[in-house]
Amino acid sequence: MEPRPGESPLDAPVDLVGPEVQQGLERRPRPGDTSDPAARGYEVRQAHPHPEQPAFDVLGSTDVPRGKRPPARRMGGAPERPVSAHGVPRALPDDLRGVPRGAARHLAQARLQWDIWEAVFSPVGSDGYPKRIWDKLTGRIDKQVAAYWKEHYDLFHILQRGWATLGPKLEGKIHVYCGDMDNYYLNNAVYLLEEFLKGTTNPFYGGEVDYGDRAEHCWNGDHTRANAYSRLRYNQMYVPKILARISATAPAGADTVSWKY
């Protein structure tokens, strides 16, 4: 979509239908999902077709390890560059209809989320601060930092890399819940993880991956209530699962009765 007269590309409205729709807006279909997406009121696109991409590949609307353009932040009056190859603002996040609530630059300008990720995932730089995964002015990605993130914190990659060791320790313990319309597209990473988990052997993961239909960020496995209510009853939801796990894996002769009341 072209900017209006006198309008910069950063201020132009986002065309959600034309070719300007950038990778971050496209959705990855759930594994085995053959339903008609049009019938659900939104369009599903294949965002990351490569089967071996790590989960960080679908972090928000960026593609960090492969060097795709991340949204940039405005720092000290410097120009921002959170735009697609067509000069259109990247959109993030969206609502349950798949309609973006704002451009990625708005999230980036908050100077919070990416700084938090860097503080947690990045190695310490020579200046004592966490190393930046990308330059805020140019958008250039530091691939060494991205590789560090992947090796140390990418759960999908770590499970895939060490399943022979981790699998026996985690069998039956992995439970993942995600809304299929997550506002930050985190469901895309869950689809990748689910594909891996369903293909595990020796042992099979034996856990659960569940999606909330048109549910947004922080969906937690409750198909009967909205997030605002279900998050108030975590104990009620999960304690029965914990008790069932204890009973199923208790050693022979263990007391699995007296503490149930």
SSE series: HHHHHEHEHH
Poorly predicted residue ranges = 7-27, 37-54, 65-86
SSE class? mainly alpha
Strand order of the largest sheet: 1-2
* Net shape: globular
The major β-sheet equals: 2 strands, parallel
Structure commentary:
This protein folds into 2 domains: 1-161, no CATH class; 162-249, no CATH class. The protein contains 8 helices and 2 strands. The chain has helices at residues 104-109, 113-121, 143-153, 155-161, 163-170, 186-198, 227-230, 234-249; strands spanning 175-179, 208-212. A two-stranded parallel ribbon has the order 1-2. The chain starts with 103 loop residues before the first helix and ends in a 12-residue tail after the last helix.
Question: Can you tag this structure with a few keywords?
Answer:
single chain; 261 residues; mainly alpha; two-stranded parallel sheet; 2 strands; 4% strand
